[in-house]
Amino acid sequence: MSDYRINTKCVQGGYTPGNGEPRQIPIIQSTTFKYATSEDMGKLFDLEASGYFYTRLQNPTNDMVAAKICDMEGGTAAMLTSSGQAANFYAIFNIANCGDHVVSSSTIYGGTYNLFHVTMRKMGIDFTFVSPDCTEEELNAAFRPNTKAVFGETIANPALTVLDIEKFARAAHAHGVPLVVDNTFATPVNCRPFEWGCDIVTHSTTKYMDGHGAGVGGCIVDSGAFDWLAHADKFPGLCTPDDSYHGITYAEKFGQGGAFITKCTAQLMRDFGSIQSPQNAFLLNLGLESLHVRMPRHCENALAVAQYLKAHPKISFVTYPGLEGDKYYDLAQKYMPNGTCGVVSFGFQGGRAAAETFMKHLKLAAIETHVADARTCTLHPASATHRQMNDEELAAAGITPDLVRFSCGIEDAADLIADIDQALAQV
Ligand SMILES: *Cc1c(COP(=O)(O)O)cnc(C)c1O
User: Fold this and answer.
1) Exposed end of the chain (fewer CB within 10 Å): N or C?
2) What is the pLDDT of residues 75-128, one digit of tens each?
3) Rounded to the nearest whole angstrom, what is the distance from the C-alpha of residue 204 to the centroid of ligand 1?
């Protein structure tokens, strides 16, 4: 980790060219890499030497971009994945196997909930979902002897709850397991979960990090702070020899700072192959170069929109953790004093019909199943992502029929408010 501030890390982290080398990160668009002798290559396969041999495992472009995100989060090692879904799956599956158990916040991204609740259960991994607002007693009661990790989102998509990272980290560590936090919505510009006791961070880089709707991607970062060997009985995958790598014990060979990501690359990326393409990693890096400039504007615009909506007589509620009076305002001030994210959700006095009319009349804000983009986008979940659900099922998912999710881009706030204003006039 460098000593530079986050703004400098966004621009220059991960890659320092030497004399006559390209100023921009080179796109190494090659599946494979050449060696002079079989012995040289053999050392790579044995993890005796580090180097590239096949892009499914590692690629130099990807590694430079992962190194930048690692630096931004303040971690010791990182890897890119093909999507945020792959990042969360790998982060958990790297330490929890069939017969194990994970404690997760209940307010998480729908895709992650499905991954945990349906798909990973089929793999024999059990999950207990707890409210992010639970007491420490309730949280501690969710642990079992076979619990291997705790999971939550810094700011939940789309519920916009804020995770009390210190509370979740305390409980995880009291039970000898790491806390994994999906930091997609806050980004390391607004929150660095490692500073609050989190052990592993994941990202859907598809969102603010890319920021331009150009490439789907993910990232996993290790803080290097979790002592696997001190809990060796819980983590045999890291603390006992790996037969598929000639008996290497990751936690011994690669230390506390390198074991998690090395195992995740050597086993999971090798076997599941959810690699990010080098071309997409290059595009992701272009996004990262301006992340620290875009995030404050996203937050500024979202706060202006939230304040406008809060005062509007046709609006029944506004949820935005950066808005004074929001249920999560105090936690947001603690963990993200410089801003939260650009996503605001709200509802209408006129219910579902009002929401539908409003959506029809927006001109600047585009209807998309996407968030965290430079361009403002919006969604009415009850008529899109959650349209199979009736009103009761929606309520159980924390979504009211009139809820609109509005992801403020980096346009001029006055134009966004004017667009909302003219659409509300039609309601
Ligand atoms: C979008 C999202 C994901 C999934 O990421 P993809 O890149 O779409 O696979 C995971 N977590 C959060 C918080 C997200 O917003």
Assistant:
1) N
2) 999 999 999 999 999 999 999 999 999 999 999 998 999 999 999 999 999 999
3) 5
Per-residue 3-state assignment (H helix, E strand, C coil) for the chain? CCCCCHHHHHHHCCCCCCCCCCCCCCCCCCCECCCCCHHHHHHHHCCCCCCCCECCCCCHHHHHHHHHHHHHHCCCEEEEECCHHHHHHHHHHCCCCCCCEEEEECCCCHHHHHHHHHHHHHCCCEEEEECCCCCHHHHHHCCCCCEEEEEEECECCCCCCECCHHHHHHHHHHCCCCEEEECCCCHHHHCCHHHHCCCEEEEECCCCCCCCCCCCCEEEEECCCCCCHHHCCCCHHHHCCEHHHCCECHHHHCHHHHHHHHHHHHHHHHHHCCCCCHHHHHHHHHHHHCHHHHHHHHHHHHHHHHHHHHCCCCEEEEECCCCCCCCCHHHHHHHCCCCCCCEEEEEECCHHHHHHHHHHHCCCCEECCCCCCCCCEEECHHHCCCCCCCHHHHHHCCCCCCCEEEECCCCCHHHHHHHHHHHHHCC
**Res. 236: pLDDT tops 90:** yes
- Ligand 1 lined by 143 (C-beta under 6 Å): no
Say if ligand 1 is within 6 A of residue 182 CB.
yes
Stated pTM of the model? 0.97
**Is the beta carbon of 83 within 6 A of some atom in ligand 1?**
yes
